[in-house]
Amino acid sequence: MAAFELNEKLRADSTLVENLGLCQLRLMDDKRWPWLVLVPQRPGIEEIFDLTPLDQAMLTFETNLVGQALKKCANATKVNVGALGNIVRQLHVHVVARHENDPNWPGPIWGYGSREAYGAAEKQALMKKILESL
Q: Which pLDDT score, from 0 to 100, does residue 69 have?
């Protein structure tokens, strides 16, 4: 059986925060939105329904856990959750904190403007805050 390998675009666009039970928890490198991604560590998976029923339950649990932590630590108005995968086919779930004054509120984050990378200290501080909120 093939080993899990993270998609190269996900690797380039995000930083590992923590390995959870099923998923890698990753921080997207765009400070316009506190934006996390959950990547199930299973090879060849593109859709949620491709996961076993137990893995589906774990993904739901981890998504809820991460969403609650992100809402708390980012003081978010709303947390958006989505698994799109049109460009990166490897299954990954976006968990994004939204605020009424954020760029492109209330519209979607995808395709809006240009990415703004975190500074190293800012990224580390946010990752620490997320881990403390889990």
A: 97
Convert the pLDDT of each residue in 70-95 to its tens digit: 999 999 999 999 999 899 999 999 99
d(CA 50, CA 39): 13
Token couple for 71: 């809402």
Q: Is position 3 within any domain? A: no
DSSP category for residue 112: S
pTM: 0.95
The answer to whether the CB of 39 falls within 8 A of the CB of 23 is yes
Backbone angles phi, psi at 19, to 5 degrees: -95, 120
- Total domains in the chain come to 1
**Strand (E) or helix (H) holding 26:** strand 23-28
d(CA 45, CA 101): 36
